[in-house]
Amino acid sequence: MIFKKFTPIISLFLCLLMLFETVSLAQTDTQNQIGLTYVGTHTESQSVKAEIWFIFAFFIAEPDIGAEILNLYWLGSEFTILKFEGSYCLVKDSNGNEGYIHRLLLREKNNNNAGNNGNLKLNRAYEHVFVDGTNADSSGTPRVKAVYNGTGTVKWSTDRPDLIEVNPSTGLITGKKAGKANLIASVNSVVKVSIPVYCIYRWKSNWTGSAKTSSKIYAGNSVNTSELTTMTSGTKFYVRGDDGGSAGMAYGYATVSGKQYWGFVEIKNISTKNTVSYYNKLTISYPIKDTEIKYVSSPYSERSNDLHRGLDITGGGSYIYGKELISPVNGKVVFVNISCKENNTKPSYGYCITIESNGGNEPKTAKKDSVTDQFFTITFMHMSEAPILKVGDKVKVGDVVGKIGNTGNVSGSPGINPEGTHLHIEINNMAAIMGSGLRTDFTYNINPIYFYMDKKFTFNTGSSAYKNYGAYWYGPDK
Fold it and tell me: 419, 351 in Cβ contact below 8 A?
């Protein structure tokens, strides 16, 4: 029922009430609107019930003391708290009606002293940190802040010291390794509260994607954690890292309805490729038998005159011509080029071979990209001689499939090696082969360096590809 004429009277009553009583409720960061956490007794995934504790209260249409009254509620009426907006709570009653009630009129059900009984209060229900120790969505200022209003000293710890380092007196966190840990606050050896901490693998190169369809942003590194908001199709998501594993969850932020939300999204909803950590976790062996050959003359990037869809590996002063190339996966040969002369520009890729990661004689070892649900194809170009293998031949990891050379369209000053000697390697997640339209740009071609992040490469920083985007570029922003 509507009680517009009683608004001034009830407003005065509410103002007087504030002078006599305060009930303190622990709330989370309202900017991200992740829900409510009551003094460590609930998690962000649970519904929190509250009740009217003083005579009566009323719904108003907007979080403003002079707004229109929508309904009246008596002592003991129960609500589900949806979120805080300043001094007001947006709540839902038992009939599904929503409206605003001043938070001083509410208390947690079955807890007459919520927040005032020696409890620790936190201002959010989760925390994000990068593995290099910085806060993921702030400028280094700790976001988990706590107030303890009882006796005793708060001691901070964690259940995963392998993932985070915790200052026991302040609770400040340093990320050590990607994954999920818990930040624990205890008083007199009694655990008062535990808050999830998500350590994020920071990408060496930022990337921006766009939501393909309506896509959720999550507080944690899986779809089973709290939902922060939903992006509509076309919303930009600015990727800064990932979950550090094989879950395919990218970390970053998007702006939705004028507010900035930091969290995780499923990479398949914003990209045609997977996360950096996903590729780094796959076992795709180094393609050169001599693993000390790791000078990158031209990375995956845009060059001044073309799109460089792969990685060029050269000797960097060492003799590499004729060094053996090996199969990085169990699979089969799906393309070969055996018609080429040294330094002939047609075909430009020279003698080459493409291997598909279908497992070969060991199907259980097949490797697919979870984003495309297709096998990978790995192509070696500019080999010194024609492949002896033919299409359909099966190979296993470590089999010799060719040798480093300089056939096709190559360049570079002659030195200890013949002019232009190098391996060009491409990795595609749509099982594309030479001549396919699925490998003509960066859409499905992955930066090969992601599979070998543990290698200590040396780079030609003077190349146009390196100058444009460095060595760890994900691809064009979308």
Answer: no
pTM reported for the whole predicted model: 0.74
Beta bridge partners of 122: 146
Go through the domains of the chain in sequence order and give each one's CATH number: 4-108 (2.30.30.40), 120-199 (2.60.40), 208-279 (2.30.30), 282-469 (2.70.70.10)
CB atoms within 10 A of CB 449: 24
Q: Hey, what long-range contacts does 433-438 have (CB within 8 A, 24 or more apart)?
A: 433/334, 433/335, 433/354, 433/377, 433/379, 434/335, 434/337, 434/347, 434/349, 434/352, 434/354, 434/379
Quickly count: other Cβ atoms within 10 Å of residue 60's Cβ.
22
Reading the block at residue 34, the tokens are: 């992740």
pLDDT surpassing 80 at residue 72: no
- Whether residue 52 is predicted with pLDDT greater than 60 in this model: the reply is no
Tokens (6 digits) for 381: 């170009």
pLDDT in tens, 361-418: 999 999 999 999 999 999 999 999 999 999 999 999 999 999 999 998 888 777 888 8
Measured CA to CA in angstroms, residue 255 lies from 229, 237, 291, 373 at distances of 10, 8, 44, 30
Q: Determine the Cα–Cα distance for residues 379 and 397; give it in Å rounded to an integer.
A: 15
The C-alpha atoms of residue 324 and residue 31 are separated, in whole angstroms, by 56
Distances (CA, A) of 280 to 245, 246, 287: 9, 9, 15
Sequence-distant (6+) residues with CB within 8 A of 305 are none
Q: Which two tokens stand for residue 27?
A: 């709330």
Question: What's the confidence (pLDDT) of residue 29?
Answer: 28
Q: 428: closest CA among 412, 444, 443, 414?
A: 444
Q: Which residues contact 236 (CB under 8 A, 6 or more apart)?
A: 208, 209, 210, 254, 255
Measured CA distances, 133 to 169, 174, 177, 199 (Å) = 17, 4, 10, 9
Nearest to 268 by CA among 294, 288, 250: 250
How far does CA 112 lie from the centroid of its chain? 41
| Degrees to nearest 5, angle at CA 269 with 267 and 273 | 50
